[in-house]
Give the backbone structure.
Amino acid sequence: MPLKAELIRKIRKIHITMNHRVNDVLAGQYHSVFKGRGIEFAEVREYQTGDEIRAIDWNVTARMGRPFIKEFQEERELTVMLLVDVSASGIFGTARAKKEVAAEIAAILSFSAIKNQDRVGLCLFTDCVEKYIPPKKGRGHVWRVIEEILNFQPEHRGTDLAKPLEYINRVLFRKTICFMISDFLSSSSFEKPLRIASRKHDMIAVTITDPREMEIPPIGFLELEDAETGECLLFNTSAADTVLAFARRMQREQEERKRFFASLAVDVIDARTDWPSIEAIVHFFQRREKRF
């Protein structure tokens, strides 16, 4: 099957499945957990018993000869920016590739946003910003976002989490809801740009993990290759002490990462290649909803 036809089929499947799930599962939750930028004037109406005296519009009252009040509403339009890691590690996955999980999560978040008339933008990154699509509204724009994530061929293979953060700190001037979707397997420091971004924007880290990154089954000697550097390692999975040490190290790194995000007031969505993406997002929405 030609790549273009296969891509269209994948996008259509994601579109139908995710749109249905957004309608059935996430209706209302997105609106309640993400607040608008402020309060804006809506209309003037005639005063009714019980209305706040402080809301009276004295100019209109004077012209009309009877009391009128000002009504305000929350300014709902938001901007959602998806920062998606397209480095070489995204091709890995035992149940599904991390790249596909990233596209699925981006679709859920995008459809949730456009149903609330919000704008969606995309920043694809490796160890540099590979592509930036400014925020726009519309279903057709969401299709483009998903297509780019699935089909984009990056020039670089490595990961530098600081680069997309530094970029949005320069180009996004209004407060934005930023979802950073990555496996966060990077040795480079990104604390400083994340700290700046978390002060300016609503930052949410979406971590994608594969079960084989947490625990390796005892299958004898296993050759592992780093997808980003090409470095190979021969690993004896029959050595119980070695496998246990590996599992403990990965668990410790995950816990340290969670503490790091918490210290910067960055929310976290934990996604896995062997779990339905919708469940991770629903759990996040429910957890965040309790805070309001």
Observations:
- The mean pLDDT is 84.
- Residues 38-75 form one domain.
- The beta strands are 38-46, 68-75, 79-85, 119-125, 129-136, 177-182, 202-209, 221-225, 232-236, 267-272.
